[in-house]
Each structure stands twice: as C-alpha cells, then as structure tokens.
Amino acid sequence: MKKIYLWIIICGLLYGCGANKSLITVDKTPIIASLDLINIDEDRVKVEINPGAFISDIVTFKIPKTVPGTYSTDDYGKYVEGLMAIDYKGNGLKVNRLDDNTWNIENGKNLDKITYLVNDTYDTENEVGDAVFSPAGTNILKGENFMLNLHGFIGYFNDYKEVPYTILVYKPTELIATTSLPMEQNRKPDPSWDSFIAQRYFEVIDNPILYARPNKETFQINDIKVSISVFSPNETYKASDLKERMEEMMSAQKKFLGDIDSTKEYNILLYLSQLNDDDAQGFGALEHHTSTVVVLPESMSRERLEQAMIDVVSHEFFHIVTPLSIHSKEVQYFDFNDPEMSRHLWMYEGTTEYFANLFQIHQGLITEEEFYERLMRKVANSKGYDDAMSFTAMSKSILEEPFASNYPNVYEKGALINFALDILIREKSKGQRGVLWLMKELSKKYGKDVPFDDEVLIDEIVNLTYPEVREFFNTHVIGATPIDYMAYFAKVGLANTRLKEKTGYFLNGDIPFIDVDTANGNNIFVRNGISLNSFFNDMGIQGGDIIKTINGTTITLESIRPIIGQSFAWTPETEIEMEILRDGEVLQVKGLVGSPTVEVTKIIPVEGISEDFTELRRAWLKG
Fold this sequence. Notes:
By secondary structure, this protein is of the alpha+beta class. It is 28% helix and 26% strand. A 7-stranded mixed beta sheet has the order 6-5-9-3-2-13-15. Strands 1-20-21-19-18-17 form a 6-stranded mixed beta sheet. A 4-stranded antiparallel beta sheet has the order 7-8-4-12, with no helix packed on it. Helix 4 (302-318) crosses helix 6 (345-362), helix 6 packs across helix 9 (413-428) and helix 9 (413-428) packs antiparallel against helix 12 (467-477). The protein starts with a strand and ends with a helix.
C-alpha cells in the first residue's frame, strides 16, 4: 500500500487457512455471490450469497475487519445493512449479529441464501474519523461507476475460505469491468451479466473490479500484459494520456527486476476523485497480486498526475516481489477478522518503497542528485516519527497504538533501512550483491505459495549474507538505535553540506510543513521532527502547534486549501495573523510573511577519494 497524505490534496489544487469441513458439504460446490448494480436502493447495492448445503445448526458469516496490505482495522461489516437469512421455503431464519462484522444464523441446515445491502465507503469518508483508505474502499455511483473492492461486498463462512466462488454481476450494459478475475468460460454471452470465478475467498478479495464507461489502454511489458482503466467523472483524463509514461516506467521496472516474474497480467484501476464531500479523500494505492487500485484527485495537472502515478504505481508493482511473492505465514494464512501481523514491514513496505526509487536511478529516469534528494527527504520525514522504536515491534503490533500512528514511517525509515542494508551488503561483497540480489535469493527459496516462518527470516538473511548484517538488524531493526545515515553515504564516497533554499510558505515543493490529524477532529497542525522554514521559525511557530485561525478564518481541512493557494501570491510584505494552540494554550502570532527559506542537507561526492569508493557507488546506483 502507498498513501499520499495532505500534500496531494493541496497540490491537486494539490490467504485463507485450511478449511474446517464440519460446516459445509465437502464437494466444494462454488458459493454463488450475486451483486445487483442496476437496481440501486438508496445508494446501496443488494448482495445475495447462495452457499450450498450446510451440515451445521449454527452457521457463522463474516465480512472482513482487516484485509492484507492495509495494516488498519476498517470493519467493512459496518457498511452492511439488513442482512437476512432465507430457508429453502422462502422463510426467514433467526440471525444474531455478534459484532460489526459477524452474524450467526440458526438452523443452518435449512439455510438457502443470505441477502443484504451494502453502502459505499467513499460517501462517508468526511463523516468518519477513522475512514477507510480510499483505494481499499468502495464506490457506488449509479449508472456511472462502481469501485468494487470485493471485501466490502462479499463475505465468507467461518473456517471455510477455501471453497470456490462464482461472482455474478448484474450491471449497466454501457459499463465495462476491469479486473484480473477470470471470466466464467462456456457461458452464454449476456451484456447485462458478468460472471467471474475465484478458487478461494482470498482470490475474491485480491481482485478488485472497476466498472466504468470504456476508458482503457493495454500494453505489453515482455510477457506481462498491462492494462490501465480510468474513471474520470468529468472526462478530464483518458487512459491514453497516461499510457506512454506508464509503459516507459513499467518497462524500466521489469528491466530492474530481471528474472523476478510472478505474473503474466497486471491491471491498474485508476479512480479520479472530484474532492466533493461524498467522494474519495484518501489518495494513493493498494496492491494486489496482479492489480492495483489507485485514487487521485481529478483536478491535478497532467504533469502532477503522471508523476503521482509513477510514484504510487511503481511502488505497488514492486509488491509482486514482497509481500506477494516473499511473505510469512501470517500473510499466507491471513485471518481477516482476527489478524496476526508479521514483524517484517521493513521489507513488505520498506523494500518496496526503496525499489520504487532505486530503479529510477538504476534505469536512468532520474539523476544522481534527484535520487540523493529523495533519500534525504526521507531522512527528514522519518524524524517526524519515533526514531527510537523497534521496527519489528512496530510491525507486529501495527494495529495498536503507539505503533499505528507511526505506520507512515514504513515509507520513510522503512526505505532507509533498505538503503543502509543495500550499502552494507554492497560493501561486504565488493559491489557484487545488494538488496535486489537478496530478494531474488529469497524468492527462489520461497515464492508466492511457500511462506517463511516470521521469526526466522532474519536468520535466513544473515545466512545468505554476512555477520555484520546480523549486527545491523539487531541494532537498528529489532533494536531501537537510530541509524547514522551519513555513515552509509560515506561508504560510497558521499558527504553532506548545508545550504539554504527557497520554499513555499506551507510547502517545500511537494512536501508539506503541515498535516491533518484525522484521529482528532481533522486539526491542521505543524509537523514535528522536520526542519521548518523561516516563515514558521520567524513567526515563533513550533512543530506540533495546531493552527486554529489565519487572518480570522477558522482553519479546517477545507479552509486551508484556498489559503495555501493564495500563499503562492503573497509578497514578503504580506501581513499575517495566526492563532495557534500549543499544549492547551491559545497563542496569537503576527508579522510579515517574508521570503521563506529552509536549511537543507545536500549530498555531494567527496573530492579526491579512492577509486574503490566511486566503484562501489557505481555498483549501488547502476547495479
């Protein structure tokens, strides 16, 4: 998963375990799940589940609480209403709702089918304090668009997730489906009905479906067929607008990966939000084995949209390496309602994010200076989180606080862990091996159908590499000692220098000095742990301060957007008055906005050093 936080909002202006055969007959007759996208009931989709015969008096039906790749508790059952269980004579059976996501049905031997209505998540993202991340959410827009992340629509029967599913979709004829789910073969064509098949429940939730009017492009990357399908409500963008850059990027990714190849098909489902109150607000993407759902603002310029697509899709595509190919038993046998989390987010998200940047310098898509700047930006951003927190402990308990609020650091420090590990392995192997080599070796031993034991992965890595790698993990990944990143830059002949650069008032390029606290009333606050620009420093504003008003305007997520837009036209003589909240005390600050600068660390080559350093740097940057 890749999240894009507040900056993109403002820049758009900004596997199931073994089955218990006591529940259902053992012939593996497919469960039939039907979705009616024609007869929408008050913006709700009717779902019918026909499970076949049961041999148990009590049948338990569940909608996922958590799905792989989200690392959050989302309770998709909250969006289900009016669940009814019907017997073979058409009469209702008694249903007891145990919690948001679980229903017990009595007299299960007589159960014929279950029916219920599903609300979409996009409509309520502004209303819910802990909203579902949009790429993992659902949209119901009658006659226009249906974003079917199927974990929001189709549930499973307790302890029996290995039964095949047939998914029937009654849909408007003008809308087409984009998905990696295979169509049912040998079926009489009907433009109003689609029929998909999944071999087990994990395949249901691993294959989202986008229904929209035709706006699709396809291209070939070696032996991988890639499709990009776009829903642009105002027809601002076509898939053809993005095809060239996506093809260039994914061709470079495939060259970078070499012989790592776990899929023959990959689908990119792009939903462009209008940013209305009842539309998607969470921007980024969610990975699947052979597809990704991407949500971005439709108001972005083409240049920004292309760059955002490169950033998020490159990250998601690299998930075909980890965790989709290399993963622990906690991922392989994922419990959707009582998950046990793996301790290796440093790899699942960190390695993936590192590769999403490394491949671009490796394949000549960015310069060395740009690559170093990206790494230093991650260093700065990582300081906004708890740098003295065990990464494995955080990963294992990522659904709980204080670890949950540190999750975004997987894209910052997680990537930097891999940077340091890459340099270390390169150094010990005299440039011949790195993290990409390590992932290839692990994929040879494991692969998408063979999980590793969570507690032994680091031992496996040390056995493949060097004793110094164990010390690194014990100190900086299992342990809580912060990493001295400059020591690793020095190993490849690089040093740092401090410079002052011009910035915006609220943004340094695409990086914000402010953020939104979605857990506490959507307060806008000044980010902690990063270097603030002279505008904030001269005004006496500190990291952690909550901005209450600016020039008399109450600051909310909605009101800050136009103010940021206006700030681009401010002059050094513009006066500003702000009210901030610090440690429970309201403070008034005012003055001239000035010409904002920020002190930054630049990475530069060291002059006159041994060729060994530059050779090692070339091996790191160019493989």
